[in-house]
Amino acid sequence: MATRHQVRQAVVSLLYARDINGENDEFKDEFLESKKIRNKQKIFTEELINGILSNLNTLDDALNEHLNEYKMNEIGEVERAILRLGAYEIKFSDIDKAVAINEAIELAKEMGSDTSPKFVNGVLDKVDK
């Protein structure tokens, strides 16, 4: 069974793929199965993705307010996906805000560039306040 952290990794991957390939998500179920994300964790994954996509404009507006020299459409796809997930969990979920930020930082360490963790931390900390 997948952990919640692994679910978040999958969400970032799916958001990244959506940014690259457009709205084609035919492979989503196969991808989740390959990551052994099933049952409750699959439901959690779908809740996160659907919540992010349903609130995409609100999330991007909130994030754009705190991006100093860039806008959401100008940053890397991985960082954009991580920020959207983190902002969604801060604004719309019951998870502790510090946990949401920490999870996003960990995802940035694993999936982003060397500067991603600091960048993600700074932006999400501002969104939280």
TrEMBL record:
Domain NusB/RsmB/TIM44 positions: 5-129
UniProt cross-references to InterPro entries, sorted A to Z: NusB-like_sf, NusB_fam, NusB_RsmB_TIM44
SUPFAM superfamilies: NusB-like
Keywords carried by this UniProt record: RNA-binding, Transcription, Transcription antitermination, Transcription regulation
Biological processes annotated in GO: DNA-templated transcription termination; transcription antitermination
Top-rank taxon: Bacteria
GO cellular component terms attached to this protein's record: cytosol
Family annotation (Pfam families): NusB
MF (Gene Ontology): RNA binding
Family: Belongs to the NusB family.
Function: Involved in transcription antitermination. Required for transcription of ribosomal RNA (rRNA) genes. Binds specifically to the boxA antiterminator sequence of the ribosomal RNA (rrn) operons.
Protein name: Transcription antitermination protein NusB
Lineage of the species this protein comes from: Bacteria, Pseudomonadati, Campylobacterota, Epsilonproteobacteria, Campylobacterales
Gene: nusB
